[in-house]
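Homework help board

Subject: predicted structure for assignment chain

Our instructor gave us this sequence and asked us to write out the predicted structure in token form, then describe one feature. I got the tokens but I'm not sure how to describe them. Can anyone check?
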Amino acid sequence: MTKDKKVIYLTSLISLAALLVVLLTVKQNSRLVAAALMAIMAPATCLLIKRRSAKSIAKKDVLLLMVILSVITSALIEMTGIYFGFYLNPYLVNSNILLTTVIPVAVIIVATEIVRSVLLSQKNGFVNVVAFIIGVIAETLTFSSIAGITGFNQFMDLIGMTFLPAFTANILYHHVSKNYGALPNILYRLISTLYAYFIPVTCAMGDSIRAIIKLVLPLVVLALVSAMFSKTQKKAAVKGEKITAVGVLISFVIVASISMLVSCQFRFGALVIATESMTGEINKGDMIIYERYDGQKIEEGQVIVFQQEELKIVHRVVRIERINGQVRYYTKGDFNQDEDRGFRTESDIVGLTDVKISYVGYPTLWLRELVNPAN
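My token output:
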């Protein structure tokens, strides 16, 4: 291995390790720590690794397109407030927001794209992967970190709301940086991320829907950029792009489907069975798909999903009583000897079970035990 390669590998791995340490250990002000780290990493990477020059095909055109798309998509997202409603922006820029959020986020974005551009210019598969992971972690640290998470639900929120959107976003950033340089990504990210701190009102869109948009949008932009400019690439590169696009599309369909089910923003939701109370028909580790409850008729023997404090419970209706105009549903786990305490009303019911998928929920249970072994 040449000395240059050793420097490339060592620099990229040290950068990755440093970001991982921040992600896993820094509980407070992780954004500020990440910004300081990236501010060091970017110039160090430029000094230690020689950037290989490459012709940027249609660089100016892509730069203009990315700026236009960032403005249009940001405006469209805010226009959804016509449907979701608007509220006063609690993060409207002031001296504190500027120092603790806007400047650190801008530093992370610019530094990440500089590091990505230098590493991708080496045309080394391993270094490319490391650069991608660095991008995902840096994007995640812009909004959150694992160290501050104390429960499984918080961990899953981090995965769904932050990590998965960061993953799909970096598919776009990697493609653009590799073919057209760092500047289109920098401008696109600065505009689409920081505009939210400079508008007095913002749309009241739910976090789950916003996360799904963040999953979809980078892939739409990637498809548009590829469709408009791929003809200028070499045939081998075009073939590679098609293969990548198919893989991205398949990944997106899977990720988006799971996100929609877990968020239950639409007609159906998904839930992993974490106990043995329904063993027999529904076992621990199974995933059930349930239809959201909207007043459908419920009969004895129906397995329902209901809310009990902060938990969703999947049990069978064993008795139904009507007292003073109120319908009371009494439930029991098939494996339990006794009925559940009290009764459920319509306001407690979340959904009606529809489909069971055996065993697929075990990875989620393992993650739960890893994050919170006491439970």
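Reply (TA_rk): Your tokens look well-formed. For the description, you could write something like this. Residues 46 and 118 are 7 Å apart (CA to CA). That's the kind of observation they're looking for.
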